[in-house]
Amino acid sequence: MRIGILGTGSMATALGGAWVRAGHQVLVGGRNAAAAARAAARTGAAGHGGLAEAAAYGEAVLMAVPADSAPRLARELAPVLAGRTVLDCTVPMAAGPDGPSPTTAGGTDSVAARISAAAPDAGVAKVFGICHESIWTLPRPAFEGAPLAVPFCAGTPAAAALTGELIVSMGCSPLPCGGLSRAALLESAAVLAVGVWWSGGEVRHVFPSPALAPGAVDDGP
What we know:
It comes from Streptomyces nojiriensis. The chain is an alpha/beta fold.
């Protein structure tokens, strides 16, 4: 798969490197040519260029820029993004007195929904934002004997299919979580996870499977 990356930061290089290891072709795009060249070298990408060049590179485009900039960039590149799947890994958060808080309004408002509104002819998926970027530097992320589950919300069936295919290629398990109306839940979960890590806690200890309890009975949904 050909993947264009918009951004040159830690998530761009971590995910780009994971995709190169999985056999995909990656092109890194940035506003600063030197930064894009450095990011491409770190990921082993096929090349680098400007943002529009990266957006036009393949069928998938990673949005790895600050969350508040992502919808504006999507609007700027909307004609190029048409017909492509935009992978939104942004986490909209700001520091607060009690820890990180989402900067979106809640409900169905999310950066992913704003990107979709700005580039209505693109398929958008909210994905890859839950984990710290260091997880994506692992060859094939797996924990306690199971592949990493990657939750995502997608706005179109085509975006969902491509996202699932990409996740599988990385040695992980796709975890569909609904349409873009539920993307705000993933964004809030990511902000919560960051706050737990900053406080020295372990998010993985919060959600044990009920099946692990002695004598547990599955009562269904």
